[in-house]
Design brief:
This protein is mainly beta and 467 residues long. It contains 6 helices and 31 strands.
Length: 467
C-alpha cells in the first residue's frame, strides 16, 4: 500500500466504485492498481456564457472527462495513456458510466469510465476532477477493475472517511454479499421518449415467492393499464397503452422488498423437458454439445457435472462490455466471443447445462449494493439455477468470475441483497409485442407504432430495517 494519501472533504459518489455519502480517504491502491497523476487541465465545453457555478451537473462532468480523454488521445497517436503496474496502457474509450457521474462538492467531481486496450482487455478507471464546471482538471485516475474483476473494495471508517481495501482482505459484504435477510425499497423509473404514434410498453412487476416478499407501494404511470400474467414462469407484467400526448412523461414504480439469501431448495420437477429445450438465443447446437461433453467427461453425478460446467464458463469467459453484441443473452455469441455481461455468462451456462442433460433456467433483476444504504443502481443483473438431486441450485457465474474467492459461494447461493424482476426467456404475453416473445424482461419493452424503441430505466433503492 502506498503511503500517499489524498483526503477529499466532500461526499462520495453513490456507486460501487465509491459507495456512500460522507468523507473519503483515498489511500494509495494495492500494488496491482495504477494511478495517473498530474493530468493536464482540460476544459469542458460550456453551453452558454453564464457565470461559472461551483457545482457541476452530470452533463458537464461527462463532457469534462470525455474532453480529457480526447485531448490526451490526440496527443498520443489516438490512444489514451495510463500507467499501470509500471507499464503504459494504450487505451480507447468504450463508455462513460453516466449513472455514476457525481459532483462530490464545490469544484470536486467523479467519473467512472470503461476503456479497452489493444489486446481487448477492459479497464474500469475511476477519475477525480477538480475546478469549476467549465474548467475541470483531472487530478487522479485509478484502475479499479479489469474485465469486471475489482482490484479493491471500499470500507468506511468510524470518522466516516472511506478507504480502499485489497480484495483478499475484503469481507463478503464489501464484495457485494449480504447473507441472511435484507429489506429495501426498490424504485423503478422510466422517462418516455418523444412518440409520434400510438405505443405500448411492457414492464416487469416483481412478485412474492418463497425467497422474496414484494409489496407494491405505488405506480405512477400514464396511459391505460393492463396487468398481464405469464403462467409458465409465474411472472407479472404491466402493459400501458400510450398516445403521443404521453411523450416525455415519467413512469415511477416503488416496491417494498424483504428478501432472504437463497440456497439449494427442494421443488418437484414433473417435466424436465421444459428446462432442457432451447430458447431463441440459447440454442443447443452440435458445438455446444461438444463443449459440454468435454467439460463433464468422467464426472459421475449431475451436481459434479454442473460444477464442472460452472468452472468451464469461468475459465472460458471474461466480463467485458465492448461492442454492440453484449447484453443480449446470446449463448452462441458468448461461445464465440468468450466475453459479455451477466446475460452472456448465464445464457452460455444454461446452454451447456441443458446440452449435458441438466435442467437449467434464467432469472433477472437487480443486485442491491451492500456497502451503502441508498442511491442509484447501475442496471440489471441476471443469474441462473440448475436442477440436481431433487433441488434447484442457484448460481451466479459472472459474480463468481469477478470475485474468485467467492466462486464456491456463488455455486449454490444467491445473496439476500437482490430483487428478482422476472424469470425465464422468450416470454409470451397477451397482448404482446408485435416483434414477438420478449427475450427477457428487466428493462421496459416499448413499441411505437409497432416498432421497438430502446429505453433504459433508472433503478435506485433505500435500505430499510428488517421487519
Amino acid at each position: 500500500m502506498s503511503s500517499r494519501i489524498l483526503r477529499v472533504l466532500d461526499p462520495v459518489p453513490k456507486h460501487a466504485c465509491a459507495p456512500a455519502l460522507g468523507l473519503i480517504l483515498l489511500a494509495g491502491c494495492a500494488a496491482s492498481s495504477g494511478v495517473e497523476r498530474r493530468a493536464p487541465a482540460v476544459k469542458a465545453p460550456a453551453a452558454t456564457d453564464q457565470p461559472r457555478r461551483a457545482r457541476a451537473v452530470t452533463a458537464e462532468i461527462q463532457a469534462g472527462i470525455e474532453r480529457h480523454i480526447e485531448v490526451s488521445s490526440r496527443a498520443n497517436g489516438g490512444f489514451f495513456h495510463l500507467t499501470f503496474k509500471g507499464k503504459t496502457l494504450r487505451l480507447k474509450l468504450v463508455r462513460v458510466h453516466i449513472e455514476y457521474l457525481a459532483s462530490l462538492g464545490p469544484r470536486r467531481n467523479f467519473a467512472c469510465v470503461d476503456l479497452v486496450d489493444t489486446a481487448g482487455e477492459v479497464y474500469d478507471v475511476d477519475f477525480f476532477l477538480s475546478g469549476p464546471p467549465n474548467d475541470m482538471t483531472v487530478t487522479q485516475a485509478t484502475v479499479h477493475k479489469i474485465n469486471g474483476q475489482p482490484l479493491y473494495a471500499w470500507a468506511q471508517k468510524k470518522d466516516r472517511t472511506w478507504h480502499r481495501v485489497a480484495m483478499d482482505k475484503a469481507s463478503a459484504r464489501l464484495r457485494g454479499v449480504i447473507k441472511g435477510k435484507d429489506a429495501f425499497e426498490f424504485v423503478y423509473q422510466v422517462k418516455l421518449p418523444k412518440m409520434t404514434a400510438p405505443a405500448r410498453i411492457w414492464l416487469p412487476i416483481p412478485v412474492t415467492d418463497r425467497f422474496q416478499t414484494v409489496e407494491v407501494k405505488s405506480i405512477e404511470a400514464p396511459g391505460k393499464r393492463t396487468m398481464l400474467q405469464v403462467p409458465r414462469h409465474r411472472n407479472k407484467v404491466l402493459m400501458l397503452d400510450l398516445t403521443p400526448r404521453d411523450s416525455d412523461r415519467a413512469i415511477k414504480m416503488r416496491f417494498a422488498v424483504v428478501r432472504r439469501e437463497k440456497a439449494a431448495y427442494e421443488e418437484p420437477l414433473p417435466d424436465k423437458s421444459v428446462y432442457l429445450g432451447p430458447d431463441a438465443l440459447v440454442p443447443i447446437t452440435d458445438r455446444i454439445r461438444r463443449l459440454a461433453r468435454q467439460a463433464v467427461t468422467g464426472k459421475k453425478t449431475d451436481l459434479i457435472r454442473a460444477r464442472a460446467l460452472y468452472d468451464h464458463v469461468i475459465d472460458r469467459m471474461s466480463y467485458k462490455k465492448v461492442g454492440k453484441n453484449w447484453g443480449k443473452g446470446n449463448a452462441l455469441i458468448a461461445c464465440d466471443s468468450r466475453s459479455g455481461n451477466c446475460s452472456e455468462y448465464h445464457a452460455y451456462f444454461i446452454a451447456v447445462s441443458r446440452a449435458a442433460g441438466i435442467p437449467a433456467r434464467f432469472a433477472v433483476g437487480a443486485a442491491i449494493p451492500s456497502a451503502r444504504n441508498e442511491g442509484r443502481i447501475g442496471g440489471y443483473h441476471c443469474w441462473a439455477e440448475f436442477y440436481a438431486d431433487g433441488k434447484w441450485w442457484p448460481i451466479d457465474v459472472s459474480e463468481g468470475d469477478k470475485y474468485s474467492n467467492l466462486s464456491s459461494y456463488y455455486f449454490g447461493h444467491h445473496p439476500a441483497n437482490r430483487i428478482e424482476l422476472s424469470r425465464g426467456r422468450d416470454l409470451v404475453v397477451k397482448p404482446g409485442p408485435t416483434s414477438g416473445a420478449i427475450s427477457f424482461l428487466a428493462y421496459p419493452m416499448l413499441e411505437v407504432d409497432g416498432r421497438p424503441v430502446r429505453i433504459k430505466p433508472k433503478f435506485s433503492f433505500i435500505r430499510k430495517k428488517l421487519p
